[in-house]
Amino acid sequence: MGTPGVLVRFLFLLLAQLLLGSARGLHNASQRTFEISYDQNCFLKDGQRFRYISGSIHYFRIPCFYWKDRLLKMKMAGLNAIQTYVPWNFHEPRPGQYQFSGDSDVEHFIQLAHELGLLVILRAGPYVCAEWDMGGLPAWLLEKESIVLRSSDPDYLAAVDKWLGVLLPKMKPLLYQNGGPIITVQVENEYGSYFTCDYDYLRFLQKRFRYHLGDKVVLFTTDGVHEKLLQCGSLQGLYATVDFGPGSNITAAFLLQRNSEPRGPLVNSEFYTGWLDHWGQPHSTVTTEAVTSSLHNILAWGANVNMYMFTGGTNFAYWNGANTPYAAQPTSYDYDAPLSEAGDLTEKYFAVRDIIQKFAEVPEGPIPPSTPKFAYGKVALKKLKTVEEALDVLCPSGPIKSLYPLTFIQVKQYFGFVLYRTTLPKDCSDPTLLSAPLNGVHDRAYVSVDQVPQGVLERNRVIILNITGKAGATLDLLVENMGRVNYGRYNNDFKGLISNLTLGPDILTDWMIFPLNTEDAVEHLGGWGGHGDGHYVEARARGSSNYTLPAFYAGNFSIPSGIPQLPQDTFIHFPGWTKGQVWINGFNLGRYWPARGPQMTLFVPQHILRTSAPNTIVVLELERAPCGSDGLDLCLVELVDKPVISAALTYDRGSAELLSKDPWLDRV
User: Fold this and answer.
1) 338, 495, 568, 648: which has the fewest Cβ within 10 Å?
2) What is the pLDDT of residue 27?
3) How many CB atoms lie within 10 A of CB 556?
4) Per-residue pLDDT band at 649 (split at 50, 70, 90)
């Protein structure tokens, strides 16, 4: 009988120890605190003074394949935190259709940062700006045309409330006090820069964030260093921070923060390591010396700082934004950041690391190297079909008929392209003006008559065009959405033909509207057959020598499977091409526009490449491909091992076009 008694006592003691350990664990978890000390003018982490040195990284601009690589490089630079936005439209592309897996798995991204010992500053929106399409707001909000975004408009608030009810409960377990890495959460973004200045809206957000996340998390706002911006962008109960870049008067900037927050930590939530680009403008750079000098002074102030960006990434597919007067951002979001678009270590990276090392402990050990790049060489592409010839694949459900043009939103086409078609109501044997008198083309329209290219209408730049054709001829306008405005009062950026077009004095009517599903079409190229029916040759002969019909081109290249280091990252270059969209193995890499620049190459991450089968490149060239005059010759692209995102630009006033000096042209 003794043995069972001993066993019972042993089990009792074991259970008691387990319960005690569990209680201690709960006690320790409850000790995790992150708060503001107004007495000591600092943050307190677990009761101790704390200062964060952070860098911005956007998980939605970097394939999840590379998240760990970029985060580890940030940690090894001496950062103790990272900052990221959450773009609503990336996760809810259509109402009620949520995406939180793969490259959209924000929870996994945050957990990965946690595993690497990095804290997280979460900028949860619902508006984020970020040079991202519509500032992260989903385009489908515009289905109510009169909606006032970023305000207490009831329809807008209802949509925001539903979204926050999905996102914030996912974030709550990841808060620092709940065992996760999130130390602070931003409410909205730079709201003081928006025209509405609606405190009821900010109060609504504050209540919903508190409802979902609790009372302990530090909520904050960010605004530029101007009294008016801080006045409209801040609210009692949300800690006000500022943003400014190198060369700014640091003393004056933090004094402005002190106007809103007399006590508490000094915070620069966006210290700019570089700047954003636009098509047709020189690549933006900020010198390493300017960045490190200002960073040193900010840290010497004892301030908290987040470097925007620390690694920029890529606007894959159609996700880039635009500014006003309308200027779209390119595919690259390199930002001249310490880590390049491809995650490469730069001179700025090591210089920033040296500055941080003067104020904080930097981890020892090797820094992950820049990933190797490979030049796979030239790839020949063959013309498949023009857009018109492929309409049965691009729009299998057929056109929508309307007396007057409908916008992208009205036909529920949020990105990409829509083909608008009508007939010429009169003879235009002599050149006749086709015009968008209310600047109604958003953003570019590629115009043809009976499959003869006529030219391009472009928002704010080219609103009239001479066309020729016979009465009853087919008039096509392939309209491209170049990216919605992401900043300022014009976020409600409708796309397509947003007003009537006129031919001479007459309003054009009786439209057939084809929303184009390019993504599905590219995935099913096998059913496209060979070349078109010869319209291409005729169009080049009779149309403008500056344009060919928008058309798809495709080709393959193989990567040797016997080389263990392959595949590697690469860059695709377009010598002689004009403007369009490119896919590799069905992955939408984004827009290319070497005719305008400054970006000449697009980043190709290795995870989309394969050695087990040929890799397929599909190009939709919108204006002019560099093929032979017979329309049947092969066109070349080249896969190179170095990026070109800063080609020199010259402005040709005669053609009102920005022409790029492409250093790769001599190689092909």
Assistant:
1) 648
2) 40
3) 13
4) low
In whole angstroms, what is the distance from residue 90 CA to residue 583 CA? 19
Q: Which amino acid is at 602?
A: L
- What pLDDT does residue 561 have? 82
pLDDT over 60 at 541, yes or no: no
In whole angstroms, what is the distance from residue 107 CA to residue 175 CA?
A: 11
If we measure between CA atoms, which residue out of 352, 385, 382, 368 comes closest to residue 271? 352
Backbone torsion region of residue 166, taken as left when φ is above 0, otherwise alpha when ψ lies between -120 and 50, otherwise beta: alpha
Convert the pLDDT of each residue in 24-33 to its tens digit. 433 455 689 9
Residue 306: how many other CB atoms lie within 10 Å = 25
Q: Are strands 580-584 and 587-592 parallel, antiparallel or unpaired?
A: antiparallel
Residue 329, pLDDT score: 98
270 is catalytic: yes
Mean pLDDT value across the chain: 91
Catalytic position from the list 190, 388, 480, 623:
190
pLDDT of 650: 53
**H or E element that contains 227:** helix 227-233
pTM (two decimals): 0.91
Coil, strand or helix: which one is 479? strand
What sign does the CA torsion over 502, 503, 506, 512 have? negative
Instruction: Pick the closest to residue 230 from 258, 266, 200 (CA basis).
Output: 258
Alpha helix positions (H), 372-493? 391-394
Beta bridge partners, 601, equal: 573
- What local confidence, expressed as pLDDT, does residue 22 receive? 42
- Cβ-Cβ contacts under 8 Å for 320 (sequence gap 6 or more): 131, 132, 133, 328, 329, 330, 331, 333, 482, 483, 590, 591
477, 419 in Cβ contact below 8 A? yes
Residue 361 bears catalytic tag: no
Residue where the block lists tokens 């939103």: 409
What would the pLDDT profile of 15-60 be if each residue is shown by its tens digit?
445 444 444 433 455 689 999 999 999 999 999 999 999 999 999 9
Nearest to 458 by CA among 474, 486, 436, 475: 436
* 8 A C-beta contact, residue 645 and residue 599: yes
Structure tokens at 538: 């005729």
Cα angle 348, 352, 357 (rounded to 5 degrees) comes to 150
Cα–Cα distances in Å, from 315 out to 59, 90, 237, 282, 614? 11, 12, 34, 18, 25
Which segments of 319-416 does DSSP mark as H helices, in order?
347-357, 391-394
Tokens 């040079």, located at residue:
131
Catalytic entry in 131, 188, 261, 270: 270
Interior angle at CA 342, CA 337 and CA 345, nearest 5: 55
- If one counts every other C-beta atom within 10 angstroms of the C-beta of residue 15, the result is 10
Closest CA to 337 of 283, 397, 394: 283
Looking at residue 1, what is its pLDDT? 42
